[in-house]
Amino acid sequence: MDEEETDMAISLCFEPHDQHVYRDMPNIWTDTPNLQPPPPKMNDDQYRAYFESHKNDSPYTLVKNRYFRADLDNMPKEKYQKEPGTNLWICRLHDEKKDIYVGTAYHQKTAANLAATDLLDNAIEWGQNELFYIPRNKYEAKHYVDVKRKALLKMAEESKNPNPINLINEYAQFYNVNIETKENDEGPPFTSTIEFDGETYVGEAGTTKKEARRSTAGIVYDKLAESDKYFRYKQEQEVARIQNKLKKSKRRADKKKAGGSSDNKGVADEAEIG
C-alpha cells in the first residue's frame, strides 16, 4: 500500500457510510496474511473422548501432534549431542517462541521425551492445555505430565547400568509377549539368538553363553527403549504403583474409621506391604 492509498483509506474511515463513495474505490492490497479462523471449541464429551484416545501417548508425541493438527510450519526442532566424557544424549527442543527445553538420558528418545515434559509444563502455565489435548484442569494436567515424567526418569535411571536380559523378560511377562532364546552348544565363541515379539535378533559372539545372551538382549532392549512401546509400559507400571498406593491408603483410612486400635496398625501395615 503506497502513501496515497493509505491516506485515502484513513480518510474514508471517518466518512459516513455511502455506498457510492466505495463503488469507485481502487483495490488496496496489503501484506496481511490470510488468517484462518480458530477451530470450533470441543464440548466436554468430545474433548474427553479425544483425550482418552491419546492419554497414553508419549510427551514428545503429544507435542508433535499439536503442530500437525494446526498444520504449522514451525514444528519444534530438536538438536542432539553427546555429553563429553559420557554416553549421555542431550536433547534441546526449540518451540516456536524460541524457548529451549532440555532432556538428558542414555537414549535419544528418552531425552527428547524429557525435554517435551518441560514444554508441556510451560504450556500448562500459559493456559494452553487444550492445544495439546491434556486435562483442562491445571492441577490434573500437572499430575498427568508428572506421571509421564516419573516413568521417563525411571527409564533413564535403569539405562545407566541395565540388565537387558531381566528387563526384556519383565516386559515380555507384563504384556505376554512371546520370547525364545537359543545358544549354540559348541563354543567358544558362543552366539545367542532371541526371538522377541515376532522378530529375530542376533548379537555379538561371546566367550560364554551368558555373555552372548546379554549381547543379544542388549540389542532388543535398546530397540525397545527407543520406542513408544517401552514408554507406555513404564507409564502403566507407574500408574499401577500410584493406584496400589491409593488403595493401601484407603484401606488404612477405612480401618481407622472402623475403630482399629493404634497397637495393631503397624502390624496391619507390614502385612499389606508384604
TrEMBL record:
Region called Disordered, residue ranges: 243-274
PROSITE patterns, per the entry: DS_RBD (PS50137)
Organismal lineage: Eukaryota, Metazoa, Ecdysozoa, Nematoda, Chromadorea
The protein's name: DRBM domain-containing protein
Molecular-function GO term, any one: RNA binding
Pfam family, one: dsrm
Biased composition (Basic residues): 244-255
Nucleotide-binding listed as a keyword: no
SMART domains xrefs: DSRM (SM00358)
Residues of the DRBM domain: 163-226
Cited InterPro entries: dsRBD_dom
Keywords: RNA-binding
